[in-house]
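Lab intake sheet, docking and co-folding queue.

SAMPLE TYPE: protein with bound small molecule
LIGAND NAME: magnesium ion
LIGAND FORMAT: SMILES
REQUESTED OUTPUT: full 3D complex as structure tokens
PRIORITY: normal
SUBMITTED BY: R.K., bench team

The fields below were copied directly from the construct record.
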Amino acid sequence: MNHPMPHSTMSAKPPETRAAEQGGDRHSAPRSTSYQASASAGLFETISRAERWETTTHESILGQDPVLEIKDFKLWYGSAQAIHDVSFSVPRGKVTALIGPSGCGKSTLLRSVNRMNDLVDSVRIEGEMLLSGDPIYGSGVDVIELRKRIGMVFQKPNPFPMSLFENVVYSLRIDGERDKTLLQETCERSLMGAGLWDEVKDRLNDSALQLSGGQQQRLCIARAIAAEPEVLLLDEPCSALDPIATGKIEDLIDDLKGSYTVLIVTHNMQQASRISDNTAFMYLGRLVEYGPTEGIFLAPRLQETEDYVTGRFG
Ligand SMILES: Nc1ncnc2c1ncn2[C@@H]1O[C@H](COP(=O)(O)OP(=O)(O)OP(=O)(O)O)[C@@H](O)[C@H]1O
Ligand SMILES: [Mg+2]
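RESULT FIELD (auto-filled):
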């Protein structure tokens, strides 16, 4: 599913008819005069007046091989809706940045992708997510297996209280892997992939908790890639790191491109423009605009996107 879904309360007319009436393509948000003139705060007043919502998706990213498809996804914490009708596809082997002001739902959306929100009692969801065509929320989905296919690294590094070695090979241990050579090879390859091998190769049996914050974060990335996930979710992985450690993680993300699909939340616009192929801009729980990173940063279609990427709000 590559095109955005309409708002659930929209008119009964088919999207093509509405798009033709609006003089735009079917992937664009409705463009009434008031919409174009709206300031950021006015955008959602306009939407509620129009009672419909569509993400503005740049045509050039349609048709890319999707590894992750999110369809009309909604999420509530109790009675508060945090995600509204989000639909988009994350292409395989690319880096996709998720940007937007604090509280707009980026972490909620990311956590929903590997079902971390299952752990929150008040959460209710609607809609669909597919990983390589398999329903993420299907009945009978083994969440442990799912999380091997979708790795996640959080803002704050969370190494397990065990040795560096055991941290990295954790997913293989869960599978009961005992082949020492295979475990050692995986550990070395993953630490190299995470740009940490040279710094720690002589202390693999030390506790992971002795590492610096930047090293811990790279260890968590090594642990995630050891499982060879189809998708790697990174939620502000550099926010607590210095520029050197940040540079190493950005290099790592660049190296992962092609072999892995990365969906990364970042508040750093320079970082998003440096490392990502595509960028999705969220605001107030909605996906506002989605396109190639260059397009989002240099030629955004919506005033709201331009205001955000140029630092005028958020
Ligand atoms: N466990 C929770 N229970 C209730 N509400 C929550 C919970 N987690 C998040 N929220 C609310 O959901 C909304 C989206 O939060 P979320 O953490 O996804 O935002 P974010 O875009 O990641 O923000 P930031 O950039 O600050 O990390 C916020 O209004 C937040 O208060
Ligand atoms: Mg967050």
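REVIEWER NOTE: Residues 1-39 have pLDDT under 50 and may be disordered.
SIGN-OFF: pending second check by T.M.
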